[in-house]
TrEMBL record:
Signal peptide: none annotated. The lineage of its organism: Bacteria, Pseudomonadati, Pseudomonadota, Alphaproteobacteria, Hyphomicrobiales. It comes from the Bacteria. This is Siderophore-interacting protein. Gene3D superfamilies: Nucleotide-binding domain of ferredoxin-NADP reductase (FNR) module, Translation factors. Belongs to the SIP oxidoreductase family.
């Protein structure tokens, strides 16, 4: 499902053009990372000017059948300025025929699409001494990017909720970085395992920056719990990456 460069730019909706620079990208590879995550690698000549902070996302403008497009926010998993290649990990939402599922499962080398950004609120805060990261599968790429970008002086604890053990990915741990995988029990609400883990943890609000990403209502509950524990609202970066029944869009959470 390829398109010319002019067609790619022309198909970006006006409402998205105000949200950042438009990048015209071509897929070079698509591969499964786990049973629930696929990686899209793309490049473009203008990426020599591209910069991104760990955790930032792009709005992908994905071609659909006919002349339609669909906009989706995805974290930049990694960017190699030497090869001008962006890696974007796409979480599969089960067997549902969502626009994103259809796109990533049919994508192949040579396909072209547009992206807008980078942008986002869940971004590495480099001056924090400690980092607490709480995400579900959709926030895993952001968690990985933030952990890989940590300054040498910083420590981190990452709580990652997944729906099945096969969703785990290799993450390098050290005496500064601890990762806890939380497998969500069948029939429980998204974020339930994260809330339970936060209830069991002793609060450490001093010099800590918190990153929350996942289902919107779950992220809102996690934020309220942490605020009640004494974490400063200004030190919590919270974003809802998805909501049941909604296709696309992110929710910046500050209430």
């Amino acid at each position: 499902m390829s398109a010319s460069a002019s067609q790619i730019s022309d198909r970006v909706p006006d409402r998205l053009k105000r949200k950042g620079r438009i990048w015209e990208l071509e897929i070079t590879d698509v591969r499964p990372v786990t049973a629930t995550m696929h990686r899209v690698i793309a490049t473009g000549p203008a990426l020599s000017e591209f910069t991104v902070r760990p955790g930032q996302s792009l709005i992908l403008v994905l071609p659909q059948e006919g002349d339609g497009v669909d906009a989706r926010h995805y974290t930049v998993r990694s960017f190699d300025p030497k090869t001008r290649q962006i890696a974007i990990d796409v979480a599969l939402h089960g067997t549902r025929k969502t626009p994103a599922n259809r796109w990533v499962l049919s994508a192949e080398a040579g396909d072209r699409f547009a992206a807008v950004g980078p942008r986002g609120h869940v971004v590495l805060k480099e001056d924090a001494t400690h980092h607490l990261i709480c995400v579900d599968e959709t926030g895993l790429p952001a968690a990985q990017a933030i952990l890989e970008g940590l300054p040498a002086h910083a420590s981190a604890l990452a709580l990652i909720e997944i729906g099945m053990p096969d969703s785990r990915q290799p993450i390098v741990e050290s005496d500064r970085i601890e990762v806890r995988w939380l497998c969500r029990a069948d029939g429980t609400a998204p974020g339930a395992a994260l809330i339970s883990a936060l209830h069991d943890m002793p609060p450490q609000p001093d010099a800590t920056h918190v990153y929350l990403a996942g289902e919107t209502s779950a992220v809102r509950d996690q934020r309220r719990l942490l605020v009640s524990y004494g974490y400063a609202k200004t030190e919590i970066s919270a974003e809802g990456y998805w909501r049941p029944g909604r296709n696309g869009g992110h929710d910046h959470i500050d209430d």
